Amino acid sequence: MFTFQNGLIMKSVCLYVSYYTFTILLSLCQANNELIGPAFRLVPPFNVQFSNDTGIKIDCTAFGNPTPQVQWYLEDGTRVMTIPKIRVVHQNGSLIFLSFGPSSYMHDVHSAQYRCKASNAVGQIISGAVHINAVMNQNYDVQVYAEYVSIGNTALLRCHVSAHASNYVMVTSWTQDDIIHFYPNVDSGGKYLVLGNGDLYINNVDSSDGFKSYTCRTVHKLTGETKASSFPGHITVNDPTENQRPRVIVETDSRKQVKVGEDLILSCLSQGFPIPTYRWYRENGDVLKALAHDPRLSVPIPGLLKIEKIRLDDDGKYVCISNNSVGEETVHHTVFVTEPLSVNILPQKVVGSSLLDPTKSVQFVCTVNGHPINRIMWYKNGQPLMQLNGRVRVTSSLHKQVLMLSPLNKDDQGMYQCFGTNDWDMAHDNTQLLLGDIGPELVYWFTEQTLQPGPSLSLKCVASGNPLPQFTWTLDGFPIPESNRILVGQYVTAHDDVIAHVNISSLKVEDGGEYTCTAHNEIAHVSHSSRINVYGVPFVREMPSVHVVAGKQLIVKCPVAGYPIESINWERDGLTLPVNLRQKVYSNGTLTIEQVQRQTDAGTYTCQAKNHHGHSSRRDVEIQVLIRPKILPIPPMTNLLAEGMRAAISCQIVEGDLPVMFTWTKDGDGVNNGLGVGTATRNHDEYSSSLIIDRITAEHAGNYTCIATNLAGEEKFTVPLTVNVPPKWTVEPEDTNVVMGYPCMLHCQAEGYPTPMVVWKKSFGDSIDEYKDFLYEPNVNFFRNGTLEFLHTSKANEGKYMCEAKNDISPGLSKVIQLKINAPVKFIQKTKQIQVKLNDDAHIQCIAVGDKPLQISWKGSTNMPILKDIDRRFTIREQTKDNGIMSELGISPVYRHDTGFFKCTGSNFYGQDENSIELIVQETPESPKDIRILNQQSRSMEITWNQPYDGNSVILNYIVQYKLVASLWIADPAKVIIAGTQTITTIEGLTPATSYHIRVIAENAIGLSEPSDEAQAFTQEEVPSMAPQNIRAEAKSKTELSIMWEPPPSESCNGILIGYHVGYLSTDDKQNPTSQTVPHGRYIIKTVNINAQYSEDFVISGLTPYTTYSIVVQAFNSKGAGPFSKPITVQTDEGSEYFNFG
Length: 1142
Known about the structure:
One of its GO terms (biological process) is axon guidance. With about 1150 residues, this protein is mainly beta.
């Protein structure tokens, strides 16, 4: 019968115990003794990577009843053990890899597949494969390379990490000019975007972006080490002068793997002029279909497509076309959508109670969810269920397999697992099938009763189990007395329960006592005892002789009937027991004697029972003490025998009851089985036996056990027998080839006795005598099994090696092998920089070493292969060297766009390497741009400009030239020279109110740039610096004076003259009227504005006749008045004219 749900509530709970409630329910099932197969509570992950500097702890725990034992195994089934200072296996299921140095790396430990196994009495389960990979922590570089982009396009900066660390280092942020930080985020849009892979996109580049620096910051996922790029990257912004076809700067054919629910970014970024536009399509066979409107689709910036919350139906091929008026380019993306695997088996537990019914069958349904599902496999007790036949069948449908077992066999019981796998994920579930080997369980039992004599009585016990249990009954520890009144029997119900009974037709006083029913099968036994009390006087039933083994405990219970009983006593030789510390008498009539001895404890004992009325009963019992055999120690037979000899092992007992039976076993095998060919046993008398081997061979080595058995028990004595055998190869060493730098193992194993010692030697010459003991280096491990391991091979390890196996039985074995180290291609110099002038020829060399044949290919600054037949500027020349090859790439001539990283890739049969050469094409700088006048004064001005393209050579100086607008540029005009780090200066010593032309020239180590476009500037005015000249005056009438003058020199006007101030002062009452000390403030000032009517003359009227006047003249402009002229005097005199010049 098979039950998927038992009627008892407790059993039902135990059958369907779940992972989340196992802690409480498991304790209930254990209390009910319910068997529960192992189930994982904590499963180790599919992939485990860790750094050798940190180590790691991997947990694997399981639950069940009995509590499962957790162990670790390698993929080949080898048990994982603790290796001091390398690996620790804990009893709780934890597997710990300790931190280690490079010299302690072990390939079979640190780069291997492990499995966790949990087992108990029900069966075994295994975890999925755990891929362990210890990563050596090595120094790595982080670089950001300069990129070239035309104005208006989108620039792409990448964080380049050394190849050996690129899989473990992730970009956390970018920093602009050490001030502004950008973090991975594509939701905000805008000018700057950082994708999840760390790429920095700078949208709509303008000239100002060329003056900014960008640094990427990274973190090592295994060690937590943070590192920024060694040098900041820059963008060189070009202003295109002609149309350019779109140039794709991302992968043109990529494969993206993404999980369901994640976001995905596809890039189609191109650069060109006019700025490219983008169209996205979904590829369906040979047809391109435009992407339908979907709120999950968005374009953060031109050239990027974002798909939010990926679904399985997003799997497929996507095509992007970038286009402008010159041409178009195409980018293909293959999107592979995955979904984590999950597995479920129904039913979770099946219990069977019949083994032999051919109609019985069971099926397990395994459902696997997720994508993709590459394979579904069944395991039984931790082993693949490979041998499928008509009785064990598997049928498959979409995402589902059904395992059918029909008819059932006893061997089918155990733990079954279903695994769903693909290339990067594995999931499993397990179920248990319980058939047979189920211990008895009492489901009903009789209870204690107190009865009067006369009526009938039926005692019943019911048990289940598989195989079906058998019952035995006892009364007070002795078999139930035979009587025609008493019937003992049992039968099996339709539900496979066994009912046992004792029926008494007419109850008598002597039927009273403690009845015990015991159910037992091959697995276990279970008992129940209760008293049946029958009213009456005491009655002690007859007791058969009791046998006990010397040294054991004697337990005998007085079979007393009657009720009630007041006391039960034991006597021997008239003495009431106990009489020593080894004897104890209990109130229920039980006598115990510890460590029974024949001389003192064998004999007749009497049991007496009394009631309170004084009635009593007594009965004797004979106690016989049996003595087990004792074997005389047999000396070991080690290091005595060799193949071809004869041997005999004698086994003799020195004590023990007769008869004694002698048997022999070898290495724990069955009695007298497997003792080996030519082996016989002989019994010489009642006390001894011999094992005889006529002709010794290596197969006779082992542990031989003599077993002496009598009624009291058995005694064993094991004798080791060894056979001296010369060494023989079990793993013969062979010639080995290995790629340089990779680990290598040379295997050499021999068997024999004593165990051969394996020694490696290395040849240091052509003669066999020149083999010397191999000196083990930190790079080399020698294992006890004879394996020689090189952790990192080099050319120095190449040569002839000899393995010797000796054990002093014969000359031993030896064999010479050749270890060939195959050198992969390698570039001695990984990076370098070459500077070449524009339009000159460039010669770039790569020198690779390694085993031949070697091949070298080149990629240009656009990361595209260089095809010299397409671009005639390129030539490739190769020269073979003793240990490698030299390849030279010639470029004639070089252009500006050749600036960038050229990569030469070398390859041979054993690997490949890459060399990166940065070619910097240098030229004179471009002209400075955007000349601006910041601060104009009358004799100076401040100018600034934008830094131009420096021609890949640091700008040393800026030369600021200036001249008058009206003049021509001469060979060496006036100039100011400033350092190339500045883009602002002040020109001094200029003339006020003057127009100038200004231009700027940049200078680097290559030469001078072309002059910038001219900027025109006008200095501000100043007050005139000189007075008007040639002052004249005459009397025009007795009250009028006419004043005349000439303007100041033009170079002293310092601007445009607006007018003049004419001052006059009567001097008749003054001494020395022409003195300079007369304050000008006393003069009467008249203003003469320069216009069409007035210029350099003026008539002063309203004067006093016949009076002398002092006259001064002053010019003024928009900034103010200049100095006064020297005073002159003139007199008003009617009819007379004269001049007096001071």
